[in-house]
Amino acid sequence: MGGKGKRLTGFAILLAALLALPHFLQFHHQDLLIFLTINVLVVTSYRLVTLTGEWSLIHAVMMGVGGYTATLLFKHLGAGMWLTLPLAGIVAALIAAALCFPLFRMTQFYFLIGSFAAGEAIRLCWIEFVGVFGGTGGLSGVEPPFVFGIDFLEPVPYYYLALAIVSFCLLILYRIENSRIGLTLHSVHWKAPLAESVGVDTWRYRALAFVVGSFFVGVAGGLKVHYIGTITPNQFGIGFMVFILIWVIVGGYNRFYGPILGVVILTLFDESIRSFEEFRPAIYGAVLILSVLFLPQGLESLAGRIRRWTGRGDRSADPKASDG
Fold this sequence. Notes:
Elements: H1 3-20, H2 27-50, H3 59-77, H4 81-103, H5 108-128, H6 130-133, E1 139-140, E2 146-147, E3 150-151, H7 155-177, H8 180-190, H9 192-197, H10 202-228, E4 230-231, H11 238-251, H12 258-272, H13 280-294, H14 302-309
Antiparallel strand pairs: 1-4, 2-3
């Protein structure tokens, strides 16, 4: 069987496992599976932003923008989920586009701090404008769709719905990364002066990655709020943003599947340490430090290391060999 055949077989097995998985889980774990599926889109969209070398602290807030957009559209206009999700992404993308002008005058550390300040300003608006956003108590009463007699309030149908939407979004993100645009984003990260010398507008490509990443995380925010039915500013604070960073760093961000590995494995790990709630910050700090020290390229590089340790595919003499 050729490489393509193996990939197709592996994809078919993965798809069958994902479709069967919720039927073997208890209600609590079905909930967890839905949130995990949504978070896969969160980390993958964040990775698109990091392709240009810029790491922001506003991605969680952009998810909240999508969530609040979906909530307001549903509550005040009665818009269904099929309309609120794309509009949630569009509004998040428009706000990101407006923020590009001040934020992308800065780079690296200054961009990181600037994005955090912009995110906190948006989050404070949700708290202060109580009449619109409900203040610290947030908003509630959002419902999932009811289509063809299927009640998506139940976790298993909603999981299938979320899986379909997230898979479609991941396909688009994958196609973007492997297109000419994606290659240019990589060049902006690694060789920005060279890219500018051949006519690449690095500012525009950084802004494009930021806007597109915000669109998809806005969709993720809409997906989440339609399931849990409520939204509050605290759901999208710096604590959640730190988790996004840890998922991406531990999983690795050089390959498309790296952040997905990170969020899946760390979500399972988090579930296993639920009884040690008071020690979770220290445990996650230790996980992050160990990952940076011993797996600087993330979990995505682990397979390559194992192959070399076991003598399979030993490329130590190959100057082009690299982790992962």
